[in-house]
Amino acid sequence: MQYKIIFSDIDGTLLNNERALSPATIETLKHIKEKLPVVLISARMPAAMRHLQQDLEIEDQPIISYNGGLILVNGKTVSSTEIPFDILSALSGFNKEINCHLSLYHNDEWYVPQRDRWAAREENNTRISPEIKSNAAVLEKWNAENKSAHKIMAMGTEAEIDAIRDFLQQEFPDKLHLYRSKPTYLEIANREISKFSAIQFLLDNHFNFEPKDCIAFGDNYNDVEMIKGVGMGVAVANARKEVLEVANVVTNAGIDDGVANSLKEIFKL
Description:
Blueprint: E1 5-8, H1 23-32, E2 38-41, H2 47-56, E3 63-65, E4 70-73, E5 76-80, H3 85-98, E6 101-106, E7 109-112, H4 117-126, E8 131-132, H5 135-145, E9 151-155, H6 158-171, E10 176-182, E11 185-190, H7 195-207, E12 214-218, H8 224-229, E13 232-236, H9 241-246, E14 249-251, H10 258-266
Parallel strand pairs: 1-2, 1-12, 2-3, 7-8, 12-13, 13-14
Antiparallel strand pairs: 3-4, 4-5, 6-7, 6-9, 9-11, 10-11
């Protein structure tokens, strides 16, 4: 099978234990990108992906951010799927009693209600600094601008995250993707999108390839549909059981250059 394009998740998949690209990964992907496109696909905001694109010299390729909620080609939005504003407003109201940390994202905007340990951790992970603004103030701003969140990140105690999950599932069934990457983290996105739906959009509108032409790398729940849907779905060894079960191949852990090692095997480098 002659594969034509590569999609790779970032956190838990592509980065080493310092949350950076290893020299081996950079060298391998720079070699590969001369042969076929390499596209980064992540729950991250675009600004938290561009420095990785620069390291890999793939700034000319699209970015799939927010798990498919926002797709950029040549820096321009070609697909945008937000969380309905009424859901964002209802969650903000519910959270007034809990006071869980809610990070609100739209394109390259990232707002946090205060500079707390949750904001500091995400800032350290992504190398992006948020703007401090209350959730209510952000909602007022976005309502005036007729836009909503591409992603909401709830961070707090397990009990707080349980409460937010239960509220959203009860009030808005089948409207949201709820990704619980950790007991204290809940990523919230529009249910209409996924990483695989974003891949399909680019294949249809930009690359003129088919899913069978794709290689995709991932590790977490939000990668399952993508890994299952492409021609060669590769799970890193540290992936969730659900990802390992649908993958065609399991490679080394993300922090052990799993993506680079797999590509070397596939393309006989």
